[in-house]
Specification:
Blueprint (H helix, E strand, L loop, with lengths): L13 E5 L4 H12 L3 E6 L8 H4 L4 H4 E5 L5 H8 L4 E4 L8 H22 L3 E5 L16 E2 L7 H6 L3 H20 L3 E6 L1 E3 L9 H11 L9 E6 H13 L5 E5 L2 E4 H11 L21 E2 L4 H6 L12
Helix pairs in contact: 1-9, 4-5, 5-7
Length: 314
Amino acid sequence: MPNDSSSVSGHGQTVCVTGAGGFIASWIVKLLLERGYIVRGTLRNPDDPKNAHLRELEGAQDRLTLRKADLLDFKSLKEAINGCDGVFHTASPMTDDPEQMMEPAVNGTKNLIVAAAEAKVKRVVFTSSIGTVYMNPTRSPDVVVDESCWSNLEYCKNTKNWYCYGKTVAEQTAWEEAKEKGVDLVVVNPVLVVGPLLQPTVNASIMHILKYLTGSAKTYANAVNAYVHVRDVALAHILVYETPSASGRYLCGESVLHRGDVVEILAKFFPEYPIPTKCSDEVKPRVKPYNLQVDNPEATRLGRGVHSSETVPI
């Protein structure tokens, strides 16, 4: 893996990061600046105080500009992307409201790919999700979940999981548009992302952990999740951008844990917090972790199999 703090791979290159104030995007911006890139971040409102952390990043004063853009406003996207060598498309709603999810996720993705094609960027790195991969009720527990898997759209609809439905349709749209427009597209599919916040606001994935620390969750669910550190996810995006041979989809994950394992880890590190000790479903057997393949040879060769020094157990 390249040294992410001293690499000069970005010198002379200008890249655009959509939704730059988000959890993963903020880390991508941070690491891009550390590697010498000139970065344009798109935001719906660059002057919103919640985006002030971006201007405080090392290198931001000289090499970061924030542009007002909306995924559904093609002109604003085109203006932000014109002149860029590459695009990191992270902007996407994080909601289970179908009306708020579908149009920005799907039509916004289409606008982004078209704008990137017209700007003739070298590569688009698209932030997708494990939610486009594992939602399939017919998959048996022993089947390996890897980059070839896709979520079942009917199952997503029937379970009203509009986030996974929207992300799946958005990624499929990205692949279709990229093929039609001749855009070099690479996709990163992170699992549940945790780690230090750069932004001042709490996001949905951090709430997943925070609820066990605040006492708002009195029990833990009989469920499993895969977890990954946010710095590793950001670095994975940059590695697939910088590696010419990178192609297709890349699952980005560290561990698959039962919620019982999660609360045990939290209790070990934070014994003073009111962390739940009981499962909300003690009748059914404990759900087994699914078989997530995150060390395929291509991913390891790119460096994703090597975790950053900040990686934590959850």
